[in-house]
Amino acid sequence: MLNRIFLVATLLMLGACVSTQPISPKTRIIDAPSLNVVATAELGETVVEKGRLRTFDGMLLSNPLQWGDGFLLKKYTVSPGRLRARQQDAKFIYFYSEDMTSYDALLGTHPYAGGGLCRSIDGSGPVRGFIAAGACNMNWNANPEVAEIQIQDVDSPGFRQELIYNGRIGDSLKFLYREFSGDMMRPPFSQEVQYDLKDSTTIGFRGVRIEIVEATNTQLQYRVLSSFPDPGA
Q1: Contact (Cβ atoms closer than 8 angstroms) between residue 28 and residue 53
Q2: pLDDT tens by residue, 180-221
């Protein structure tokens, strides 16, 4: 009897499944500030930044969610964390949980990698749950507390360069160069550089050319004449 109830419930949830398509990452170009415009940076702030990032839409879930009781219906639990948009159909986007479990009285608790949260493509209506992409119809035991976020593509994380103002001592200006792969800094490619304003008010580093307008130990006014070379695809 219990097996029949579970089978019927599963068929009801999966019966609405439709064809879904994988979601490709979005490419975002970072290139700041604009050329030939006077900009200002505080001590420790980025002076020049350039890069190419590949990201997915995501949700940050703040509260735990459950569906089912573990006896008549298998219980699914989604823990707080980041969920990445991986699939979509004509109506819904499916955000997969990396920390979801299933439980029933006979088999106990097991990781479950095929479900998570879903919402309409246009953002209207409630955030619901799914255990198989194509059926966005599960109502949780609580309203999902979510915020929209961007999640780095770990398979192709992108590349970013930045030059940071590190202050002035006498006529010398100090900067810190850093490189990032996705969210991770690449320490071997970090470098401290220093320039003497007596030599020139235009400084250069790896293709960057900056005209110094005014510099103190707390703030830099400058104009970017050229930035880092365009990052590769």
Answers
A1: yes
A2: 876 666 666 789 999 999 999 999 999 999 999 999 999 999
pTM score, whole prediction: 0.69
- Strands (DSSP E) contained in the chain are 21-22, 26-32, 38-42, 46-61, 65-67, 75-78, 81-88, 92-97, 100-104, 108-111, 116-120, 128-130, 146-152, 159-169, 172-181, 184-185, 191-196, 202-205, 208-215, 219-226
Inside any domain, residue 45: yes
Rounded Cα gap, residues 131 and 101, in angstroms = 11
Structural domain total, the chain = 2
Residues 15, 99 within the same domain: yes
Q: Do residues 43 and 20 make contact, with C-beta atoms less than 8 angstroms apart?
A: no
Tokens of 194: 């220093």
Domain boundary among 118, 144, 170: 144
Task: Please tell me the distance from the alpha carbon of residue 10 to that of residue 93, in angstroms, as a whole number.
Answer: 21
